Amino acid sequence: MSDLPLPQDRLQPLVVLFSQGQFDQVISQATALTAQYPQAAQLYNLLGAAHAGLGQTETALAQYAKSIATNPAYAEAHSNLGATLFTLGRYAEASEALEAALQIAPAHPQATANLGATLCRLEQFDRAAGVLQRALQINPNNPDALGNLGVAQSGLNQPDKAIELHRHAIALRPGNVADHNNLGSALAATSQVEEALNAFRDALRLNADHTDTLNNLGNLLRDFGRSKDAIDCFHKVLAISPDDPKTHNNLGSTLISAGDPARAIQAFEAALQQKPDFTEALDNKGLALYHLGQHTDATAAFDAALRIDPDYAPAHAHLGTSLNDMGQHTQAREHYETALSLRADMAETHHMLARIKDFTPDDPQIPAMQDLLNQPHLKPVQRMHLGYALGKAMDDTGDYDAAFSHLANANALRKSTLPYDPADDERLFTRLKTSFAQAPACPAPTLGRPPKPIFIVGMPRSGTSLVEQILASHSQVHGAGELGLLEDAIRQSGWTGGLPTDADLTKIAHSYRTGLTALDQNAPYITDKLPLNFRWLGFIAHAMPEAQIVHVKRDPRATCWSIYKHYFATSGSRYGYDLQDLVGYYRRYVGLMTYWQNQLPGRIIQLDYDALTQDPASKTRALLGNIGLPWQDQCLRPQETERRVATASAHQVRQEIYTGSSEQWRAYEKYLSGPFAALDGL
Q: What is the total count of domains within the chain?
């Protein structure tokens, strides 16, 4: 009896029951038949499928194993075993089972399609594409194969092909959420933002709780500046899957973009609690710490990410930036170059590397950037970074026409993401002049414990970083960099215009001093070199009488050209990406500074950048004397001072004081003479 083959008329009723979803009856009747036909591999395979249908996956795997043991050449059991392993996320094992099925039956349609899907999950996109193309030769209208081939094409950086495949799949089965979601991802990769948003919305109309779509939609919204909407998407996912590490990581990345690195760290720690070896979350945590100025902890996080995955390119790039800020330019360059050797498409890393090196005409980075710029589906932000990088490279090699063209394109792209209305600044500057036309009553100086603030103000790229580096070389001064404390304090005070009250000024002083105390520095003086604090000198002078104010001014053309050719990561310099806007802002700056000098006699220390670079000894001695600091020789060697400098001048302040930079704009005079004519006499 045990060797008798299973008659077809005993098997067929079970197949009918299975097709009707009556899995319990299949299990009951098939189990009874195994006593009579113990060598019938078909019965164990059917039992596996029925248990899988009930979600009893471990039992299903055991039944498939019995079927294969009974008949190792039974392709259907290998195929079903692979499909079940796939649902469990055991992709490597699934691949082995499906390949075994195809060794037996090379044209098995389901095994071929499932192997392609499995290889996609394993990110073996090239192999997946070949397998899925065979699946479509077997059945050209297999929607699973079409959709997964689209995923493979996206993985191979062929988003146009992916879009076509996903649309074909949707035409065959319009109600499949994954197809709409994958179409949205492919459209996003080609910067077709509105079309991508529509595809994600179509997916969410089919399933409002589809977490993959919500994550992808959130990432798209973040990348195009809609951080608040992106955060809402991630919160929806976490309400459904509170322990999902990927979503916590996406939320953290968006919080960094939204300017909230402290909350971002909480999100990354939640991700790492669920997945301690999550390389991307570790790297992103380091990035958040970097934005908080916690350099040592940030570097440790980048190093930890690279211990897990030494080939994780973003961590190399971020570590490079951190090292550059600390003046370790050689090591920074090595990490940038390693990142680009691993991922040549990292446009921002090309930009960061370009800022710290001098190009020669035969530098291989130049054609690499040009090739990347010619790729059809670059995001605007990638084109922008490549534009600044190539502008720097062409400037270094003396091709000034090409340099200006690249910089103009980069600035236009940056301006498109940071709309600027000069009337807003005109209103603000007028309101400030009106508000401080009469001197407010000053609250009593609240010196308390040190440090005393030294505000270094002026236009960006006017030499404020060099002045801070000189002061930070003094043993009694801590260089804190660009602090956002003052504007935050003014905003929190509730002032909206008019003469500030005693209460306004007291709140501002208390809030600012509290922020300085939180920096936990014991030096008697601390610098705040946020240049645009020039707008708030009335508040500084009247709320903090103990504060020192140093105004750094440079040749207006040199200043404006340096702003125009540099990228600023924050949004504060949104006037700087159009020459007319830039010149107009500079004129308003001069007008406001003239007003402050008249209103605050004796409070502002004036320092000319070009005079400082030509005669650093006497100008530095005068600066220290005006502040009340004794002379120290190391102030003439600012390049030797080890401290974090997280501005566009991080590389320059590590060099000896040099002259001549204020003449560099003349190489572009034919492009600049028109707009710069309005700077005459300033």
A: 2
